[in-house]
Amino acid sequence: VHQSKLDFFCKLGYGKQDICKVLENLGQEALEDDVLKELIRMGSKPRALENQAQPSQLKLVARGSCSTTVGLKWLGEDESDASNSLRPIVIDGSNVAMSHGNKEVFSCWGIQLAVDWFRERGHTYIKVFVPLWRKEPPRQDSPIADQHILEELEKQSILVYTPSRKVKGKRVVCYDDRYIVKVAYEKDGVIVSNDHYRDLQNENPEWKWFIEQRLLMYSFVSNRFMPPDDPLGRHGPTLSNFLSKKPVLPEKKWQPCPYGKKCTYGNKCKFYHPERPHQAQLSVADELRAKTKVPLAPGKEEERCQCSP
Q1: Which co-factors does it depend on (predicted)?
Q2: Of 193, 26, 215, the residue nearest 111 (C-alpha)
Q3: Fewer CB within a 10 Å sphere, N or C end of the chain?
Q4: Residues 124 and 209 grouped into a single domain
């Protein structure tokens, strides 16, 4: 009976010493419920609960080992958090809509095309700023197309209206460009606009650098939103690196040497030589010196000694 109870509570995770102590106090014929109550009263905990209370520390794992994913999950980083590596997107709604409408019509369909393009890439934080007076019915001097799209984007918490009001029949509009730059700067994101915001660049030197480095221009080609593949010029980052927080560096491609084995530059040659493993290149003079210092085989050394006077 003692052994069966001992095995039963050991399977539950309690220590043998605590179980034996309780059985000595209550007697061998004590009920299992009474033994369990006594163990709880003594403050004894199963090992599984103790392990949960004290999580194991992260271990250093060698590079290339697949066990590093366990550490990432313990830190709360999942594979589903891949979208966190992409930068937040702040869209200048007025600029995008007027560009899509050929600067004549405020085309809300252009805003939808831009939002869909970033959604397909996996961006989760997308904000569009539009003045509040665009909610009003369209007039002849300010036509609006597909105005219902603004309502749909507002329900999805993507579109944000910048405040405006009427004072004595005149409309007072807040400067929506300041909202766009401020939110993008605070979120460390990207501004989508063809405007250069020169007045805001002169206002704040930090904003000047941010606008120069994080402004993503675009074009509409047959109802297709198309940002450039090189947002900062030919020598700048690619579009994917520009939109991600952790840019991926391209692999260095070696160009083969046009002289081949006849090259005399040695270690100063900037081209790739397949006959030189790991690019451990020496100058021609150093290679000749290294060859002369190589010791001869034992048999050849004896022959050389016999031949020498």
Answers
A1: Mg(2+)
A2: 193
A3: C
A4: yes
Written as tens digits, the pLDDT of the chain (309 aa) is 667 777 777 777 777 777 788 777 777 777 777 777 777 777 666 665 545 445 545 545 444 444 444 333 333 344 344 557 899 999 999 999 999 998 999 999 999 999 999 999 999 999 999 999 888 888 888 899 889 999 999 999 999 999 888 787 787 888 889 999 999 999 999 999 999 999 998 888 889 999 999 999 999 998 899 999 999 888 888 899 999 988 766 555 667 888 888 888 777 787 777 777 655 445 566 666 776 765 545 554 455 445 454
Q: Are residues 156 and 271 in the same domain?
A: no
216 shares its domain with 266:
no
CA–CA gap between residue 232 and residue 239 (Å, rounded) = 9
57, with CB counted inside 10 A (0-12, 13-18, 19+), is exposed
Look at residues 132, 101, 128 and name the one whose alpha carbon lies nearest to residue 117: 128
**The domain containing residue 273 runs over which residues?**
251-277
pTM reported for the whole predicted model: 0.56
Q: Residue 219 belongs to a domain with what CATH number?
A: 3.40.50.11980
Residues contacting residue 243 through CB under 8 Å, at least 6 positions apart: 86, 87, 121, 123, 190, 216
Say how many domains are in the chain: 3
Do residues 29 and 168 both lie within one domain? no
Residues 144 and 222 in one domain: yes
User: Any bridge partners for residue 173, and if so which?
Assistant: 164
237/255 same-domain check: no
Tell me if 220 sits within 8 A of 113, measured CB to CB. Answer: yes
As a whole number of angstroms, the distance between CA 160 and CA 146 comes to 17
Longest dimension (CA), the chain: 120
Q: Could you give the 3-state DSSP secondary structure of residue 162? A: strand
The alpha carbons of the chain give a radius of gyration, in whole angstroms, of 36
Residue 306 forms part of a structural domain: no
Closest CA to 85 of 115, 58, 127, 125: 125
